[in-house]
Amino acid sequence: MDSADPATLPTVARLTELYDEYARGNRNVLFDALAEDVVWTSNGGRILPWSGRHTGRAGVEAYFRHLDGEVAIIGYAVERVIAQGDWVIVMAKARARFRNGEEWILAKVDLVRMDGDRIAEFQEYYDSAGLEFAMAPTGGVTRLAGAAALPSMVLAAASPTAGDGGGQAIA
Predict the structure, then answer these.
(1) Quick one: which of 108, 104, 19 has its CA closest to 70?
(2) pLDDT, tens digit, 9 for 90 and up, residues 79-120
(3) Three-state secondary structure of the chain
(4) Which of 74, 85, 91, 171 is such that its CA lies 20 to 30 A from the CA of 23?
(5) What are the pLDDT digits (tens) for 130-153?
(6) How far apart are CA 84 and CA 171, in angstroms?
(7) Does residue 155 surpass a pLDDT of 70?
(8) Where residue 57 falls among pLDDT bands split at 50, 70, 90?
């Protein structure tokens, strides 16, 4: 956890608590921490069914329904937390199992604006091209024969679990 400003320590502690609960599979704690007018944005373009802007608790619950329809998050590890004022950056890796049976470790960055102990705004960024590759019906590993046509960042950012996982153990 990185935080140079002591005034941000309560915000970082609260957000760390919420991420820990999410990693344990307890989404209700997350839902209960949403501001009434929360804006939740997943920046994955049109490719990914859960992408887009979602508002309010009902919108965030719809986001998770769409996400769950495509992928199971089976592990989550926060690598770094950086705070400035009411904004917090969370760098993390998620272990995901896709409907095609593939498991991948995916790097992501979340920008979260807190309003007291509530999440007022959430924006997530990840390699959407890598996710599209991983979600393909034939699976990402099966399609690696054609990977030369893909940008190298796609293969580096969304690596199958057979890779090193960035040195992080993700349960």
Answers:
(1) 104
(2) 999 999 999 999 999 998 988 888 888 899 999 999 999 999
(3) CECCCHHHHHHHHHHHHHHHHHHCCCHHHHHHCEEEEEEEEEECCCCCCCCEEEEHHHHHHHHHHHHHHHEEEEEEEEEEEEEECCEEEEEEEEEEEECCCCEEEEEEEEEEEEECCEEEEEEEEECHHHHHHHHCCCCCCHHHHHHHHCCHHHHHHEEECCCCHHHCCCC
(4) 85
(5) 777 777 666 544 433 333 333 333
(6) 30
(7) no
(8) very high
pTM assigned to the model: 0.77
Q: Rounded to the nearest 5 degrees, what angle is found at the Cα of 116, between the Cα atoms of 112 and 121?
A: 25
Give the tokens for residue 126.
């990840």
d(CA 132, CA 128): 6
What is the pLDDT at residue 20? 93
